[in-house]
Specification:
The complex is a heterodimer of chains A (238) and B (364). Chain A is mainly alpha-helical and 238 residues long. Chain A contains nine helices and two strands; from the N terminus they run αβααααααααβ. Chain A has one domain: Transmembrane di-heme cytochromes, Chain C (Fumarate Reductase Cytochrome B subunit, Up-down Bundle), CATH 1.20.950. A two-stranded antiparallel sheet of chain A has the order 1-2. In chain A, α2 runs antiparallel to α3, α3 packs across α5 and α5 runs antiparallel to α8. The longest helix of chain A is centred in the C-terminal third of the chain and has 33 residues. The chains are: A mainly alpha (238), B alpha/beta (364). Chains A and B meet through α1, α3 and α8 of A and α12, α13, α14, α15 and α16 of B. The structure holds protoporphyrin IX containing FE (2 copies) and iron/sulfur cluster (2 copies). The site of one protoporphyrin IX containing FE (HEM) has 24 residues of chain A, from α2, α3, α5 and α8.
Chain lengths: 238, 364
């Protein structure tokens, strides 16, 4: 607060305008953290499925079971990931305006303007002033849209492969997908590549959340915990 | 058929053993074996045309070299093999005549078996008797009852269909409209599997139940991995690291040597090859996925993850992912540094830093 011991009248007026808004309802926050946990576990166990380390040798098979356990974990979290995602889809219709599915599809001129604005202000840094969005900014939502598509594809390839090794009826619902991509090998490859998509997304995503919080101090990072954000309302596209 | 088998010097016992074996492979119930016996004893021969296009004849070889002699005899005796370049005595015009005679006399009744893929980039790549493979296929398909596509060539193009696929080798099922196609996968398919499919169609007069890729479920519903005797080592995480290490001698799982068992649907682990003697994995070699589409392009064979299309042979999705990850990390660092320089003022003021245009608004 060192900088604000004295506020110019102009700043003071702005300060008075700061208000809290409730953006992320509980289902969105619940979804977000369960999803993050699932993705972390799925990336780790999945990586081991693709590249098993040589941590055991010289023993008999009956003495170990870790690789199967690793796969078991992958499937448990796969189910969690899937049903959690269904919850989020439901909330895209039942939730508030910031959770609504329309957020994620840039169909209005306003959304496209905002995308270019975000690119200029935050990514290329051609402009240096602040920029406020109430919910997700339009560029972020658009990337989430692609992530949601990737989630669907990961579930289709994952449960599609799983159908062959499971006796449960549920994965069988996805079996039709495998022939579409030409077989298990192709499905596995897509599945593996998507892992890297998630890793790279998570790196950029976490960085940008930190960046926004650091630069704008709107409490965006904790908003996914508390649900609340701070805005002044001085710059909106509406 | 039964008389013919006896005449060949087999006993009734041999004959029944054969029927029992096929019934078991097909997963039929006990009464099904009786039906097979009856069909083999009484049903008239069905006319068969066996066409050879772009292939290496390993499917025919596999079939006639089956350990069970009756298997080969089915194809020679039970079906009336009216045309097949490899085995028929006729040649030239006489052969062509046979072909057309069968097509006309048995319209709607004959079985069409196809070995090999069909070039579509330039139909001239494969011509027999002055006609292109494509035209021969279409002509033969028109009057057939059902099509059996033998082996990876006919089912998914195999080696001729591998990138860059110079002849435009096309799988049979993509060129056949309106007729059922049974895809008997493998390079080559196991002889007993081929026999099983033919016997099933003779006995029940219908095509066997197929999976999503048109393969008979009786033989292709389980992965090699699910019937592999090394599987306990897989679940235990015990892997061969190089072909000549101690683990290889202990018979550990070949997953890290590129085994395609987990993505390959075939009966190798159950029926095995050469009279059930062995199969590749039992001999210490990973499965190369010969009964799956594009198995040549999903190489290298001795590496778990296929090479990434468009990059070097050894470059996998992991290498590329790591590289992109590193570039991303570098980009983030650069962006973070740039932010601290360029947005000094903002960082000091946070949301209290208004846009220039807003200063004017405020003065209103
Ligand atoms: C964030 C999500 C996920 C990630 C990052 C992920 C990652 C991976 C990776 C890297 C592999 C190894 C592929 C290879 O062998 O090269 C794998 C395998 C697999 N995953 Fe996932 N996965 C995810 C979600 C799912 C889901 C939702 C399912 C649904 C059941 C699933 C089912 C499978 C199956 C069945 C395998 C093959 C395992 C085997 O052959 O034993 N995955 N996963
Ligand atoms: C594997 C890691 C993560 C993944 C896959 C992920 C994914 C996502 C997704 C899909 C959304 C859209 C949410 C929705 O509308 O339902 C989102 C939003 C958000 N995430 Fe994450 N997240 C991850 C980690 C984190 C972490 C570590 C933070 C740290 C605070 C965080 C903070 C946020 C915030 C604040 C938002 C909303 C702000 C915005 O619009 O950009 N996330 N995340
Ligand atoms: S050797 Fe191949 S098929 Fe057998 S358990 Fe290992 S990965 Fe599966
Ligand atoms: S083990 Fe695999 S590659 Fe070998 S014959 Fe069987 S399916 Fe083909």
């Amino acid at each position: 607060m060192r900088y604000h011991t004295y506020l110019s009248p102009k700043k003071f007026k702005l300060m008075e305008k700061i208000r809290r808004i409730y953006v992320w309802e509980i289902p969105v926050r619940f979804y977000h953290w369960v999803n993050m946990t699932c993705i972390i576990v799925l990336v780790i166990t999945g990586y081991f499925i693709g590249n098993p380390p040589a941590i055991q040798s010289g023993t008999e098979a009956y003495a170990n079971y870790w690789f199967a356990t690793n796969r078991f974990l992958h499937y448990v979290f796969a189910y969690l990931f899937f049903f959690n995602f269904l919850l989020r889809i439901y909330w895209a219709f039942a939730g508030n305006e910031f959770a609504n599915w329309k957020q994620f599809l840039p169909v209005t001129k306003k959304q496209w303007n905002e995308i270019f604005e975000v690119l200029k202000v935050d990514i290329l840094q051609l402009k240096t002033w602040s920029f406020e969005s109430k919910g997700h900014n339009a560029l972020a939502s658009f990337t989430y849209f692609f992530m949601f598509l990737a989630f669907v594809l990961q579930c289709l390839t994952g449960f599609g492969m799983y159908a062959a090794m499971s006796t449960s009826w549920f994965p069988q619902l996805f079996a039709w997908f495998i022939p579409l991509v030409g077989g298990d090998t192709a499905a596995r490859h897509i599945h593996h590549i998507l892992m890297w998509v998630f890793i790279v997304f998570a790196m950029i995503h976490v960085y940008l959340v930190v960046y926004h919080d650091y630069v704008e101090r709107t409490g965006v990072a904790s908003s996914m915990i508390s649900g609340w954000k701070f805005i002044t309302g001085h710059k909106h596209h509406d | 058929m039964y008389e013919e088998v006896l005449a060949k010097g087999y006993t009734r016992r041999d004959f029944l053993k054969f029927c029992g074996m096929v019934g078991a492979f097909l997963g039929l119930e006990y009464s099904g074996v009786g039906q097979i016996v009856k069909a083999m004893e009484t049903k008239p021969r069905i006319p068969v045309l066996w066409l050879h296009f772009q292939e290496c004849t390993c499917c025919s070889e596999s079939f006639i070299r089956s350990s069970h002699p009756i298997v080969a005899d089915i194809i020679l005796d039970k079906v009336s093999l009216d045309y097949t370049e490899t085995l028929m005595a006729a040649a030239g015009h006489q052969a062509e005549e046979n072909l057309h005679a069968t097509m006309e006399n048995y319209k709607g009744e004959y079985l069409l078996m196809v070995e090999g893929s069909v070039p579509t980039k330039d139909k001239a790549y494969c011509c027999i008797g002055g006609n292109s493979a494509y035209d021969i296929l279409q002509e033969a398909v028109a009057g057939c009852k059902a099509v059996i596509a033998w082996g990876n060539c006919a089912v998914s193009g195999c080696v001729q269909g591998a990138a860059p696929n110079p002849t435009g080798a096309t799988p049979v099922h993509k060129l056949v409209k309106g007729k059922p196609v049974v895809n008997v996968q493998g390079c080559p398919p196991i002889a007993e599997v081929m026999a099983g499919v033919v016997v099933y169609m003779l006995t029940f007069n219908r095509i066997p139940e197929l999976d999503g890729l048109g393969r008979p479920k009786a033989f292709y519903s389980r992965r090699v991995h699910d019937t592999c005797y090394r599987r306990p080592n897989y679940d235990a995480g015990l892997f061969v690291e190089t072909f000549d290490d101690e683990n290889a001698r202990r018979g550990y799982c070949l997953y890290k040597m590129g085994c395609r068992g987990p993505v390959t649907y075939n009966s190798c682990g159950v029926i095995r090859w050469n009279d059930g003697t062995s199969f590749p994995i039992q001999s210490g070699h990973p499965c190369i996925g010969c009964s799956e589409a594009n198995f040549w392009d999903n190489g290298p064979f001795y590496q778990h993850l296929a090479s990434f299309p468009g990059f070097g042979v050894e470059t996998t999705a992991d290498d590329i992912g790591l590289a992109i990850g590193a570039v991303t990390a570098a980009g983030i660092t650069a962006h973070a540094i740039a932010t601290n320089i360029r947005k000094r003022k903002m960082i000091r003021e946070g949301i209290l830093n208004p846009e220039p245009e807003h200063d004017e608004d405020d003065q209103k």
